[in-house]
Fold:
Amino acid sequence: MANKENELAAGNLHEKLQNERRSFMLNTGESCSSQTERPSSKFNGFFAEVSKDHDTMSQVLFSRNLRLNVALTFWKKRSVNELVAYLVRMQDLGVVVDCLPIITNSLQEDKTTISTRCCVDLLPLVKSLLRSKYEEYVIVGLNWLQAIVKRWWTQLSSNSESSEDEIWIAIYHNFNDLDTSAVARST
Structure:
């Protein structure tokens, strides 16, 4: 139901922006016709190219806004497992970078809502963040890893064999082949 409402709201907003853009184009066309000189065709091509890119960017931002609203809905429902499953399913690093600091803060505050299983599910996405060319992505990934290590340091450093050992083995295997140049870049 919420997804359908989001789609309808985005569709109405998109139509509204399209109408505003058309009225803007009409108004600028009228102001140009009242002047004595007309703009050259070189500028007409430029404005057409900018308008085309604007439409593409608008569509990208609408899509991202919808994805972030869905993630926010999961977070407000206190359903971290569903949020993590959604992030893994979407594979959108931009949305992950927006959501991961909130998860990191929860880890740092020792909230019990985030399990080690959720963290293991996020590992492939965090690994992609650490390999990213964007510094902000690398920083967000490193902050999350730091929170993980601080939160579960006693389990990581102990030699006891527990059911969580397989989780830490998965963490080790996920990051064993990680190129350390990503870490070196951000420090």
About this structure: Residues 33-37, 181-187 have pLDDT under 50 and may be disordered. The chain has nine helices and no strands.
